[in-house]
Amino acid sequence: MPNSADPPSSASALRQHTQRRRQILLLAITLIVIGLAAWLWHRHAAAQKAAEAARRAASAGVTVTTVTAKTGNIGVYLDAIGTVTPVYTDSITSQVNGLVVAVLFKEGELVHKGDALIDIDPRPYRATLLQAQGALERDQNVLAQAQMDLERYRAALARNAIAAQTVEDQEKLVLQDQGTVKNDQGTVQYDQLQLDYCHITAPISGQVGLRLVDPGNVVQSTGSATLLVITQLQPITVIFTVPEDSLGPVIARLRDNAKLSVDAFNRTAQTKIASGELLAIDNQIDTTTGTVKVRAVFDNKDNALFPNQFVNTRLLVNTLQGVTVIPSSAIQQNGQASFVYVIANNSAQLRTVKPGATDAGMTQVTGVNPGDVVATSSFDKLQDKAKVVVSNAAPAPAAPAATSGTAAP
Predict the structure, then answer these.
(1) Would you identify the CATH topology of the domain 62-85+232-409?
(2) ∠ Cα 222 214 88 (to 5°)
(3) 88-117+204-231: CATH architecture
(4) pLDDT in tens, 340-387
(5) What is the CA radius of gyration of the chain?
(6) Which residues contact 106 (CB under 8 A, 6 or more apart)?
(7) How far apart, in whole angstroms, are the C-alpha atoms of residue 379 and residue 381?
(8) What is the pLDDT of residue 406?
């Protein structure tokens, strides 16, 4: 019989180890079940709290800001990209051959018509002119002598002292001398013109570009070298394009002798540079772009517009009088449809509208009547027939002026 003090058998030790593992596993499962139950309870409580908050918010209504639709005037504009183009740009070249003796202008300065610009050595042309004038004086005296002889011959013929043929021959000599004098006069005028070409003056008023010739340079009348360029700055024009579909209203306005105003803005279209009016329309449409070029003229008294400058233009085509206008922010899009939320009796009503011309944050619409109150915020929460609470923090913007607007879509 075994002794009670003997160590337990290996089978007993294995049973004890297995029992401990089962207890640990049961404890872990119990803890997991308790944690999952606590998480589900917390989630359910949060959902109930959110649902309760949503019910309270729904019963209280969506807080919105509103404006009232007004009656006003708004302009219809055509926006385009334009290039500043001078009315005149003159590239000055030499009309004579010679040595440049003086450059009389400063680079970039403003010159007036008739101001001296460049002098070319005039001495050879003065000498040629002097020769031509001498030949003219000689032939004029020859003509005068022939005319005196003709008068004597006619007097002698009247006394039958000479033959008639002598008088006729002298008449032809007088005509020949008159032709010679005319030829000499033409030569003198041509040589005088060549001499005048030695003193180059400004053909227009404008700004001179960088100097392209220096004293001591030899210029040729047959060459294409440009001596300087003058660009007129006042007035100045802007050339831009108008879509052919929009050309009809523009032409109709011009036929009514209307002056269509044009505003020029900077590259970002945020700052207005100058205001002018439409001057002319090109005589054909560009088939590759479906547009026609137009030219607007600006006084440019402050020289804000510079040749070849890139500008954004806005052509006022028409002004809509007495239309309904609302803030552009009140108009929402749903695919191709536009709509607003009209607020009445603390409830939002979805209403389809048709937007038109837009200016300064205001848009002309049809489908809304003057006096209707429309929502301008909380569109992510608004729905048709939803209850609302109006809370306007700022007054509604005023209707646009009669000369403002942008093109209707």
Answers:
(1) Elongation Factor Tu (Ef-tu); domain 3 (2.40.30)
(2) 65
(3) Beta Barrel (2.40)
(4) 889 888 888 888 889 888 887 888 888 888 988 888 888 888 888 888
(5) 48
(6) 208
(7) 5
(8) 47
Which residues of the chain fall below pLDDT 70?
1-9, 51-60, 393-409
Tell me, what's the pLDDT at 31? 84
- Dihedral over alpha carbons 162, 164, 170, 175 (to 10 degrees): 160
Amino acid of residue 408: A
Q: Locate tokens 């848009």: which residue?
A: 363
Q: Domain map of the chain by residue range?
A: 10-49, 62-85+232-409, 88-117+204-231, 122-197
Q: What is the pLDDT of residue 65?
A: 86
Chain centre distance of CA 234: 18
Spatial contact of 310 and 81, defined as CB atoms under 8 Å apart: yes
At 292 the pLDDT is 94
Report pTM.
Answer: 0.67
Q: What is the pLDDT of residue 205?
A: 94
For 48, the 3-state DSSP assignment is helix
* Integer Cα distance of 248 and 240 in angstroms: 16
**What residue type is assigned to position 137 of the chain?**
E
Pick the closest to residue 313 from 274, 348, 263, 362 (CA basis): 263
Q: Which two tokens stand for residue 5?
A: 């003090």
CATH classification (class only), 122-197:
mainly alpha
Q: How far is CA 257 from the centre of its chain?
A: 24
Report whether 313 contacts 84 (CB < 8 A): no
Residue 345 has which token pair?
Answer: 């009796």
C-beta neighbour count of 248 within 10 angstroms: 9
Residues 209/228, Cβ–Cβ less than 8 Å: yes
pLDDT for position 58: 53
**What whole-number distance in Å separates Cα of residue 143 and Cα of residue 14?**
157
Each as own residue / partner, the long-range contacts of residues 53-59 (CB below 8 Å, 24 or more positions apart, any chain) are 58/387, 59/387
- Contact 376/69 with Cβ under 8 angstroms? no
Q: How far apart are CA 112 and CA 301, in angstroms?
A: 15
Note the maximum CA span of the chain.
Answer: 202
DSSP 261: E
Residue identified by tokens 């337990």 is 8
